[in-house]
From TrEMBL, chain A:
Similarity comment text for this entry: Belongs to the TRAPP small subunits family. BET3 subfamily.
InterPro entries: Bet3 (IPR016721), NO_sig/Golgi_transp_ligand-bd (IPR024096), TRAPP_component (IPR007194)
Keyword Transport tagged: yes
Major place of residence: endoplasmic reticulum
Domain of life: Eukaryota
Quaternary organization: Homodimer.
Subcellular location: Endoplasmic reticulum; Golgi apparatus, cis-Golgi network
Organism (species): Sphagnum troendelagicum
Function, in words: May play a role in vesicular transport from endoplasmic reticulum to Golgi.
CDD domains: TRAPPC3_bet3
Pfam families in the cross-refs: TRAPP
Protein's name according to its UniProt entry: Trafficking protein particle complex subunit
Automatic annotation (TrEMBL), chain B:
Family statement drawn from the similarity comment of this UniProt entry: Belongs to the TRAPP small subunits family. BET3 subfamily.
Keyword Endoplasmic reticulum in annotation: yes
Pfam families per UniProt: TRAPP
InterPro entries: NO_sig/Golgi_transp_ligand-bd, TRAPP-I_su5, TRAPP_component
Organism: Sphagnum jensenii
Domain of life, per lineage: Eukaryota
Main subcellular location: endoplasmic reticulum
Alphabetically ordered keywords of this record: Endoplasmic reticulum, ER-Golgi transport, Golgi apparatus, Transport
Location of the protein in the cell: Endoplasmic reticulum; Golgi apparatus, cis-Golgi network
Name listed for the protein in its UniProt record: Trafficking protein particle complex subunit
Keyword Cell inner membrane in record: no
Assembly description: Part of the multisubunit TRAPP (transport protein particle) complex.
CDD domains: TRAPPC5_Trs31
Length: 185, 194
């Protein structure tokens, strides 16, 4: 077979899988605990993002170990890999990349299907909640570990009545790798 | 007003098809998420008992929803009303859909009439967990105990459910036993039903 030429065509090693409903309901339990503990919806959004960040910085190792991908030459490849390989590997769904900004530093990841949000309906009291905000944190954390500082946020959310989930991904800077690494400045 | 003015993809949750429950996500995704659940709850408590209680609460929320889901999907909108049937429902149907296999064993306690045990050699939630020495007998299986409690409570079988490590001879890792102690009224009802 000819080697894949596009990012996302790379086959990744088979991964162990679990039932998506266990995952969905567990995530729901977490969000519910946060809502009870913090009461403020804004604070919950922040907390979910932090949790995601913590996951992201660890998840990147798992991802690189299993995904068989090579170094991305530019940010466009990175976005494709996240959408086609990352989401596929961990959540079993893939996203589409679109709406590139003119300078190529900003794009959208669009998800039609999102296992985190199954069975979910936001009550009136939680209208400001970005239920799946953990995903933003995961992407931000993972990219930071490969020297990219990013800003990631939801701009469309099906739970708020939009037609898809849209995550806006913005590259702030490529942090140059330094060696030997300095202590914290 | 629910569902009014929304697009088709965004039908009210009860109007959407139920799905077969066969979709999967990666085990890592779940393990990462579960680890965050445990770590977050650790910041909110000052002792192990409290931590187990909070994990149990999280599991409980999963349990009652799982019961509802499985009763619709697998049981034609019926649920079990007898003690042994509900136990075997937990041991096989619930376990199979959550963890992909039936539980390793279901036993009746030898000392007390109202105690039952479900044991699992390697509980999914404990697979990547090693408990620090200073946390003693803490068992993340408290989450699964919560799931079991949620299912039983939801089905009208209130019980106290706890998770314990039990050493197994010749095995480096202990197995986890979920101990179920039914409330008095459950046994009385069961006796009346004969």
């Amino acid at each position: 077979m000819a080697p894949p030429t596009r990012a996302g065509d790379y086959p990744f090693a088979p991964v162990d899988r679990v039932n998506a409903e266990l995952f969905t309901l567990t995530y729901g339990a977490i969000v519910r605990q946060l809502l009870t503990d913090f009461e403020e919806v804004e604070e919950v959004n922040k907390q979910l993002d932090t949790m995601g960040y913590n996951i992201g910085v660890r998840l990147i190792d798992d991802f690189l170990a299993k995904s068989n991908i090579t170094r991305c030459s530019e940010f466009k490849d990175t976005a494709e890999v996240i959408a086609k390989v990352g989401f596929k590997m961990f959540l079993g769904v893939s996203a589409t990349v679109s709406n590139w900004s003119a300078d190529g530093s900003e794009c959208s990841l669009i998800l039609d299907d999102n296992p985190l949000a199954d069975f979910v309906e936001l009550p009136d009291t939680c209208q400001g909640l970005f239920y799946c905000n953990i995903l933003c944190g995961v992407i931000r954390g993972a990219l930071e570990m490969v020297s990219m500082r990013t800003e990631v946020k939801f701009v469309k959310d099906m739970l708020r009545g939009d037609d898809a989930f849209e995550i806006r991904l913005k590259l702030l800077e490529q942090v140059a790798e330094e060696y030997p690494y300095k202590d914290d400045e | 007003m629910i569902g009014v003015g929304r697009s088709k993809q965004n039908l009210n949750v009860v109007d959407r098809p139920l799905g077969k429950g066969k979709t999967e996500v990666s085990l890592s995704a779940f393990a990462f998420l579960f680890s965050e659940l445990v770590q977050y709850n650790q910041t909110r408590v000052d002792n192990i008992a409290e931590l187990e209680r909070r994990l149990e609460d999280a599991g409980y929320a999963v349990g009652i929803r799982m019961l509802e889901l499985l009763c619709h999907r697998e049981k034609g909108n019926r649920r079990e009303t007898r003690l042994l049937n509900i136990l075997s429902f937990v041991h096989s149907t619930v376990w199979k859909s959550l963890f992909g296999k039936v539980a390793d064993s279901l036993e009746k306690g030898t000392e007390h009439e109202d105690e039952y045990m479900i044991s699992e050699k390697e509980l999914l939630v404990n697979r990547y967990i090693s408990v620090p020495k200073d946390m003693g007998a803490f068992n993340c299986g408290a989450f699964v105990a919560g799931v079991v409690k949620g299912v039983l409570d939801g089905a009208g079988f209130p019980a106290r459910v706890t998770a314990h490590f039990v050493a197994v001879e010749g095995q480096p890792r202990p197995r986890t036993t979920i101990l179920i102690k039914f409330s008095e009224e459950v046994l009385q009802r069961e006796a009346r039903l004969g």
